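# nightly structure sweep
# worker-07 picked up a monomer target from the shared queue
# config: single-sequence mode, recycle default, output format = structure tokens
# input follows
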Amino acid sequence: MPFLLRAAIVGGGAYAIGKRVQGGRDQNAAQNQQIADLQDQQAQQAQQAPAAPADADDQYKQLTQLKSLLDQGVLTQAEFDAQKQKILQGM
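# output follows
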């Protein structure tokens, strides 16, 4: 009988350790899945979020400076138009 008792204790201990290890693996898998879900959610939000509009006052200042450069002859009309489009697309 002592042999059977010892075998039962060893077997029970091994079973308990195995369950604990498996529980840790299950918990890690659940955490990894949660992280992956959050990353997917953030990626979707980043794709759906519209680009932040540029500050209207800042655009006005840039356009005013650009016009001043055109009036001074520093820029050609084509350069002015190209830069103006870039500024307005930021809106």
